[in-house]
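Appendix C. Worked example: Putative phosphotransferase related to Ser/Thr protein kinases
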Amino acid sequence: MRSKLASEFIAKTQWSDAEMAIIAGDASNRKYYRLKKTSSADTAILMDAPPDKGENVVPFVLIAQHLESIGLKPPSIYAKDEVNGFLLLEDLGDDLLAKLAPNGSEFDLYKAAVDALLHLHRSPLLETALEKYSAAEMAPLGCLSIEWYAQNAGGTGNAKAQLETALFTAIEATETATPVLVLRDYHAENLLWTPMFEAPKNIGLLDFQDARVGQPTYDLVSLLGDARRDVSIPVRDDLLQYYQSESGIDPDKFSANCAVQSAQRNLRILGVFARLCIRDGKPSYLDFIPRVWANLKQDLQHPSLSSVARIVIQNIPEPTPETLNLLRRKCPTNHH
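Step 2, the predicted output written as structure tokens:
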């Protein structure tokens, strides 16, 4: 059914004669295909986002248009079918920061990504009001760590209300700056090196349809405290300092804000990765959990998270190989 709809969508564009090859799926239900014209070397990307699985391309279109208008580099949108969930997008290549960073250029690549964030944070917000990524939304999401990770890894769900209250308090107490557009999935697997364009367009933006209005440090700690790869400590520390001095946020408030935004994100990801395994049959995400845990433990050393840290230590099991095996055994793909 989707392939028929996709063919009908492509037939109405200049890409009707193109060959199509799948390039990626992600943690959602979206799939991506590369289209290559038979008559030339031109390529494009088809995003397949099925509405019946909860996907919606409208926010992607809205945010992409805004990012382009302020001088950043999302893929241009060549054609769209918002009803059936198809977009035909500019092909920005395959040079993900995650792929290039190990080759010795990590600092330069990550600095370009931080510069793109600084540009975003100095730009006006969308005229269309987006929901605020506030303590009221963030605190319950941090509790996914209890619901999906701890409860399936030998822990209990008893501390959920406690954790939510402690997180809410910490987030509210450390909010610093004027809210900005938060892209919410800003990390090296979602950023492309596009040096054919001048900075800040030398970073291609891919995954921003869940954007909200929130704290400027959220995307920064998402980039520098990556769940999927180890960012070298000197690069991370230098770029945190660089962002702080460029943004003018008070250093003490900045470090507290970074720690709390990062802790909430890492708690949420613990739960999301466990859920991807247990509910969605994607056990490979368990491999990232020890890194997420290590990042979380570092966040929790900050004094502004002392009550959150106490609840986490008492109620959320460390991801030992035994703990991860408990989760792995609950993955539906293991039951065939």
